[in-house]
Amino acid sequence: MTSGAMTPDAWRAAGRTMSWRGLRVFYRDSDGDRARNREPLLLLHGFPTSSWDWAELWDDLADAYRVVALDYVGFGFSAKPPGGPYAVFSYADQAEAVLDHLGIPHAHLLAHDLGDTVAQELLARDRERATSASSRVRSVMFLNGGVFPELHRPRAAQKLLASPVGFAVARAMPRRLFERGLAEVFGPHTQPSRPLLDGFYQCASCDDGLHNYHRLIGYMAERPLYRDRWVATIEHPRIPTAFAIGHRDPVSGAHVAERLHAIGARVTDLPDIGHYPQCEAPGAIADAYSSFRAAF
User: Fold this and answer.
1) Maximal CA-CA distance, the chain
2) How far is CA 253 from the centre of its chain?
């Protein structure tokens, strides 16, 4: 985290909440009191973190777009009910609900990790709509994530959380293990700073959120179940689509970039960056996104 990025407390104070099916959903809207005439850009975060992941990029993006970000239920500063719902389809519902709440009929997307799958579901819904005029998504850039389920390489902690003993792992997970798991997916030369790790932990542990992580990991089982539905949205895109991939990511790095190049996707390669490009190289992501948007 740089000195210019908001702390989690400041991020929360700058945000708002809305009710979705009786549950609190936290979101940020860069426009606030500004004239609302900029193109909307919706940011979709990943697991196990929150919308605060975008703090380093926020100001750069907000200079050009109306930027909106949310915490899915179970994450960050949103409600964390023991029973969920915790599923990709629900997260996509929440994203659409935030846009509806703000009166935004359509938006561009910038997604990461679990957020990639949420974006793929939103794209799949657009494919089912009657006309292109009724589509919600105008373009999408994906950062590192499990866009091809068969290429996803979960870490040991993720496998444990998804196992029958996941509830015990979530209850007993020490802070040092949470932090070590994050550091292991960053690039070797772009390791997370102490303030960044502190912020990740603060957002994740708010309202005892870490105790739900065995439930939140369910998206890993959903990906292969709905593979055809979701992978079709990137293998046969109907809107401008791009990727920015950190190669040093052991979960979804160089091997995913290789597949994307093979299908002719537009890819910004980040050879020395890990799983969190928006935190490790925010300037590079801002440039890549600007270049992508300038192309159409």
Assistant:
1) 50
2) 16
Q: What is the DSSP string of 105-120?
A: S-EEEEE-THHHHHHH
The per-residue b/e assignment along 174-187, b for 16 or more CB within 10 angstroms, e otherwise, is eeeebbeebeebbb
Our measurement of the distance from residue 238's CA atom to the centroid of its chain's CA atoms, rounded to an integer in Å, reads 21
Report the chain's C-alpha Rg in angstroms. 18
Please report which residue ranges of 15-161 form alpha helices under DSSP H: 55-62, 88-101, 114-128, 156-161
Running DSSP on this structure, what letter comes out for residue 134? Answer: G
Strand partners, 137: 107
Q: Which residues pair with 28 in a beta bridge?
A: 69
Burial classification of residue 232, based on how many CB atoms lie within 10 Å of its CB (0-12 exposed, 13-18 middle, 19 or more buried): middle
Strands (E), the chain: 16-20, 23-29, 40-44, 66-70, 107-111, 137-142, 241-246, 266-270
Let me know: does 143 contact 244? Beta carbons within 8 Å.
yes
| Tens of pLDDT, residues 152-171 | 998 877 877 778 877 777 77
Backbone angles phi, psi at 89, to 5 degrees: -60, -40
pLDDT digits (tens, 9 = 90+) for 11-32: 999 999 999 999 999 999 998 6
112 contact partners, CB below 8 Å, separation of at least 6: 44, 45, 46, 53, 142, 143, 144, 145, 276, 277, 278
